Amino acid sequence: MAQQKKMVEAITSRDVDFAKWYTDIVKKAELADYSGVKGCMVIRPYGYAIWENMQQDMDKRFKKTGHENVYMPMFIPESLLQKEKDHVEGFAPECAWVTIGGSENLTERLCVRPTSETLFCEHYAKVINSYRDLPKLYNQWCSVVRWEKTTRPFLRTSEFLWQEGHTMHETEQEAREETLRMLQVYTDFYKETLAIPAVIGRKTEKEKFAGAEETYTIEPMMHNGVALQGGTSHYFGDGFARSFDIKFAGRDNTLQYPFQTSWGTSTRMIGAIIMVHGDDDGLVLPPKIAPIQVAVIPIAQKKEGVLEKANELRSRLIDKDIRVKLDDSDKAPGWKFSQYEMLGVPLRIEIGPKDIENGQCVLVRRDNREKAVVSLENIEAAVEQALKDVHDSMYNAALKNLQEKTFEARTHEEFLDIAANKPGFIKAMWCGDSACEDQLKDETGGVKSRCIPFVEDHLSDVCVCCGKPAKHMVYWGKQY
Amino acid sequence: MAQQKKMVEAITSRDVDFAKWYTDIVKKAELADYSGVKGCMVIRPYGYAIWENMQQDMDKRFKKTGHENVYMPMFIPESLLQKEKDHVEGFAPECAWVTIGGSENLTERLCVRPTSETLFCEHYAKVINSYRDLPKLYNQWCSVVRWEKTTRPFLRTSEFLWQEGHTMHETEQEAREETLRMLQVYTDFYKETLAIPAVIGRKTEKEKFAGAEETYTIEPMMHNGVALQGGTSHYFGDGFARSFDIKFAGRDNTLQYPFQTSWGTSTRMIGAIIMVHGDDDGLVLPPKIAPIQVAVIPIAQKKEGVLEKANELRSRLIDKDIRVKLDDSDKAPGWKFSQYEMLGVPLRIEIGPKDIENGQCVLVRRDNREKAVVSLENIEAAVEQALKDVHDSMYNAALKNLQEKTFEARTHEEFLDIAANKPGFIKAMWCGDSACEDQLKDETGGVKSRCIPFVEDHLSDVCVCCGKPAKHMVYWGKQY
Q: Which residues from B are below 8 Å from A43, CB to CB?
């Protein structure tokens, strides 16, 4: 057990230094590494396998809702980026610019895409001519670049991987429905696949996406009470369509502008998984996206029949499409236990001579350490059930954390008190004025409006900041 | 039939103008479109779906041979690119350079990756310490940028999508085996998935990859007698390892340099599919990667029971994981026939009232237009068999083309005559001197050495160019 202890000691405790705990996990679980380019990361095999599992799951959801994948260029000519005023103002300050191609200075510099609205619009202007061409429901998986000053693996990096959906619709109503549909797809994905609950709603004017009419967001709560913008879905109206002169002949034969949406999620979801589910022993992965779902650890593996039985077990689970790793290396079982705990593998199976004699094995859950002796006869069903149970327990634990870290403030004083002493969401009334958002942010060292939920509680009649009549109940909080 | 005819007329005939025929197909089948950035393309949904099917198939082959996916940054600092002398000389002239990040001029400019050997080496230097860390078998799916002067969709673009494998091994032998293993994986993929035969072999010194000790290549033959470098696999020895100071403690506890490989294929394979299999009516897609494998076209679809039966047929095939599209739009059947021929859909099923009455349907193959009346009772098996038959026929037709377009030249005169009059591969002896390669290229307007095959014929004792003793038999040809 000495080795096991040593390994566990290597991670900073979550409650002692959350930021260090986070980077320790990223490093020790070999999710990502730094590269020679400031703010750019190397996503290592284990981290990338998590991303691949997320991608496959989301991609199915996108295709089921009628979307098709495409690939747009990674470069945006400066003049193209400038076509939509609000958009360029939002993104130009964080663009990386290509100014030399081959050995020639370019006559027009090219931005490495920070997001691709402008590229999609340029293409849509060519291929949308009639209402028969609508809707266009495109999505793209790619990397984007935003020149960030302060970076942290997965959470904020100068380059990151993401998906960006860009759709065009005949009517405003259809586009608004799409915006909310994709917010719901994200919410379902967070719940059903990542075991992460979240608050969802609409961003305030101040916080919405550059160029959007409305931005909707999904905001999960991290273990330390800091929120994370987990995905956004934007309704653009016909603003970009007008700037890019995208027109179609409508059913009445008049030329019309289509209505647009975009929506995106990124590798920062891996950061969310770490910070929602992880503990002092490392990662805790939701079973649906765990690269290894079950680690089979043979006990006294040199004894006759142990490895044979462990291998048989492995094969039976693989036949059920369960992702299994049998570790028959010469490391001690205790070391292996720690290692697969660190990696967040949802289930561990211990199998030794006595277990085999009794036709059983020991099933250990990563999330709550529960051990169960299980008959080998129905091991497939037991593992499948346990994976479901782990998922549900993880979701419920995360929900409990979100609920316990959600507070209500009815007065300015109460708001400042909670902001100073109780990390989490603050529900509070707001007048609708961005000056109050600025003031609250300044007074609290960074508490911002997260979103206006679809169903608002009525906590009082007046804005928690200025005391004027309240328009909305807002979720507030610090964010990554 | 008027509409059908009109549609077909819209494609240039393959034998009249091959280049125009090619771009017509790219456009009419909606595979790709041009973008506002010179040499960068938009890959449209149908083209991207082909790429996704290729990716999934290859990715399984990579994982089956033990490889893991990762993601490296898209930027390479100039100093990093310069670490390996031959490599930087090969790639620097076609790099796109980022010189501004946010609003600041960068102190060191960053190259948008043209290939990622240097990034992988930088990472490997950190994570390889012991022989226990080897082999490292990494692959990456990403986009790369090479600033090309003349571009053509899929074949040569300034940005393209690809996969690049980068592996590190304990011994030279292991690395050499890996290099050839991946060439074989590519060859199998071309044959089993793309229905494309090819010549494989080793590149001459002059044609190998910048920084490699050996480059192996797979060279399929296009319908017009021009070859295409379809994928390459490189053995690097320990050259990069020395430049990047990658060392590991060996089994004997001495510090050693590991041995390296890299291998890649790209979206240009879509170009190969067009040019190997396509005909005057459009694309002809290999069934394994066709986004739609079967187009179901109802005849007299307004008659009672037709659409119902067509839908039932569709469902039955989908249950067998066959990719089916039922086109019940109000277009005429003739128009639909042309449309799905243009899109290269391998099989068409026609089903009308009389067919239904007789419990049958008509199955039409895209590749050779063969029609068969098939009982509805076993339609699943019939379609599965027909898809296999289409694949095999396509492979055999492509093989026939490759064989018919392979010539032997025993003298200089014969070489020049074939080069001038018979497009295709020329098998001819070579002394090993690159001066002869230069001369033959100049004399023929671009015929270059394609590869030295693993089994060389002995056509004569002397070099076809200089008459000195021959070292190798080489495949020569023009290339895309």
A: 70-71
| Partner-chain contact A99 B99, CB within 8 Å | yes
Beta strands B448-453 and B472-477 are antiparallel
Neighbours of B132 (CB within 10 A): 11
Domain boundaries, chain A: 14-277, 292-388, 406-477
Q: pLDDT tens, A146-173?
A: 998 889 999 999 999 999 999 999 999 9
CB B320 within 8 Å of CB B289: no
What interface predicted TM-score (ipTM) does this complex get?
A: 0.95
Among A52, A80, A98, whose Cβ lies nearest the Cβ of B69? A52
Q: First vs last Cα of chain B: how many Å apart?
A: 37
Interface test with A, best of B74, B122, B167, B318 (most A CBs within 10 A): B74
* Spatial separation of the C-alpha atoms in residues A456 and A241, rounded to whole Å: 33
Nearest by Cα to B468 from B412, B405, B421, B409: B412
Regarding the domain with residue range A292-388, which homologous superfamily does it belong to in the CATH classification? Anticodon-binding domain (3.40.50.800)
- For B228-264, the pLDDT digits (tens) are 999 999 999 999 999 999 999 999 999 999 999 999 9
Q: What percent of chain B has pLDDT over 70?
A: 98
CATH topology of domain B294-386: Rossmann fold (3.40.50)
Q: List, as ranges, residues 19-38 from A with C-beta within 8 Å of B.
A: 33, 35-37
List the structure tokens of A326. 């049998």
Spell out the CATH class of B10-277. Answer: alpha beta
- Bridging pattern class, strands B406-408 and B425-430: parallel
Instruction: Kindly identify which residue of chain B lies nearest to residue A44, measuring between CA atoms.
Output: B70
pTM over 0.90: yes
For B87, counting Cβ atoms within 10 Å of its Cβ (0-12 exposed, 13-18 middle, 19+ buried), the class is buried
The nearest CA of chain A is from the CA of B361 a distance in Å of: 29
Residue A130 three-state SS? strand
In whole angstroms, give the CA distance from residue B280 to residue B80: 48
pLDDT tens track for B346-392: 999 999 999 999 999 999 999 999 999 999 999 999 999 999 999 99
Q: Return the structure tokens found at A77.
A: 């000519």
Q: How much is the CA Rg of chain B, to the nearest whole Å?
A: 25
B52 contacts on A by Cβ (under 8 Å): 69
CB B345 within 8 A of CB B366: yes
* Phi and psi based region of residue A281 (left: phi greater than 0; alpha: psi -120 to 50; beta: remaining): alpha
Assigned CATH class of B406-477: alpha beta
Among A71, A102, A147, the residue with its CB nearest the CB of B43 is: A71
- A14-277 belongs to which CATH class? alpha beta
CA dist B336 and B353 (Å) reads: 18
Helices (H), A431-471: 434-444
d(CA B414, CA B409): 5
C-beta atoms of A71 and B138 within 8 A: no
How many other C-beta atoms lie within 10 A of the C-beta of residue B236? 27
Does residue A333 have a cis peptide bond before it, meaning omega lies within 30 degrees of 0?
A: no
Query: Which residues of chain B are within 8 Å of residue A95 when distances are taken between CB atoms?
Result: 100, 102
Residue B9 pLDDT grade (very low, low, confident, very high; cuts 50, 70, 90)? low
